[in-house]
Every structure is written in structure tokens, then in C-alpha cells.
Amino acid sequence: KQEVTQIPAALSVPEGENLVLNCSFTDSAIYNLQWFRQDPGKGLTSLLLIQSSQREQTSGRLNASLDKSSGRSTLYIAASQPGDSATYLCAVYTSGTYKYIFGTGTRLKVLA
Amino acid sequence: EAQVTQNPRYLITVTGKKLTVTCSQNMNHEYMSWYRQDPGLGLRQIYYSMNVEVTDKGDVPEGYKVSRKEKRNFPLILESPSPNQTSLYFCASSTRTGLITGELFFGEGSRLTVL
After folding, report:
1. A42-95 pLDDT, tens per residue?
2. Which of B37, B93, B111 to mutate to test the interface with A (most CBs of A within 10 A)?
3. Disulfide: which of A69, B11, B45, B75 matches B58 by Cβ 3.0-4.6 Å?
4. Chain A, 51-90: which have a CB under 8 Å from a chain B CB?
């Protein structure tokens, strides 16, 4: 059964730092992996989608990588800003199940 | 504007009183799904639908029903709500090519309290 883990659960950094959020999954047979941002009391916003055949995706200051064989993905945020403060979740869409399994998220706080 | 719309956004009800949470998307997406989000447990998939009239259970389907009679709508039905169904519910949709889905779009969420 697919399990998705995100470490750390919470992270506090000063503004301007580059940071890395981690996502690991136990079953490497995935169709894709997505990273989301969730602000308090709000829905999830998709940040990056990586299909299983891809190694990375970039959008602005965000870069996500995928290493299927080791069951890992990282979300790199460059030059962090207070507006980046939110909870970041990853989700994997596992082959043969048609289900998304979510990690419990990393709560990020960027201090001004 | 591309969006997933859920209603109601907030609801307080009592045990056993049937309720429906509606979900509608305007992006012509084939794949739709429902999730619940609970502290410490994260998001868990309740039901999903690959297309009209095609639905299947997620990881926590007990106590819920869904239907997909039209492509744009995917209502979540609680026939006899219980307090353990108090949660934040999200509907989401995406494109689908064969078995592979695209970017997931989420609604704003529906906060349900069952007394």
C-alpha cells in the first residue's frame, strides 16, 4: 500500500533563504506526483506536476525533482519570501489504483 | 474562469439528517474526486470518478455515496451523517488521458460539523 511521507512537518526560515522540502513514497509504480500549496482555511493550489517519465519541473522560483527509483521528490524554493508561508503537500497517483495519496504536508513559515 | 465550485462551504447538521455536498467544474474534466482532510491524518480520498457513470471507492468510502450523472457534477451524499464525519471536504477535478490524470484543481472546501 502506497505511503507518502513529508519531512520536516514544520519549517521556519528567514526571508531570502533557499530551501528544500522533501517527499518520499514507498511504491515507485506511480503515474505522476504533484506538489500543492494550501493556505489556512483554503483549498489546495497545484504548484507543479511531474509525470513519471520526467525528472523535474520548474515554475518561477520553484523547482521540483522526481527520483522514482528511490521513491523521492524534492521541492526547491529559491529566495523565499513571507508570501511563501503556507503548507506544502505532495501527492502521488499510483499505477493501477487511480487514487491520489497525499503526504501530511510541511508547514512553512518565512520570517520577514 | 476555470474553477471547481463546492456548496455549501459551511454546514452544521445533526446525526442522521441526510445531506448532499455539491461539486461542479467548468473545465470539461473527466476525472473528479472527493477528499476529506483531518488534523494529523492529512487528505484522504473518499471516492473518485474516471468519467460519467464510472465511480469507485477511495480509501475511506464508508458512510458516503456519490453519483456522476453529468460530466460537470459530482455530488457527495451522506445518507446518515455521524459525528466522525465532521471534517473539511474537498472536491477536485483533472483532465484524463487513458489512465493518467493531469493537474488536480481543487474547490475551496466544505467544512461540515455533525452534532
Report:
1. 889 999 999 999 999 999 999 999 999 999 999 999 999 999 999 999 999 988
2. B37
3. B45
4. 51, 89
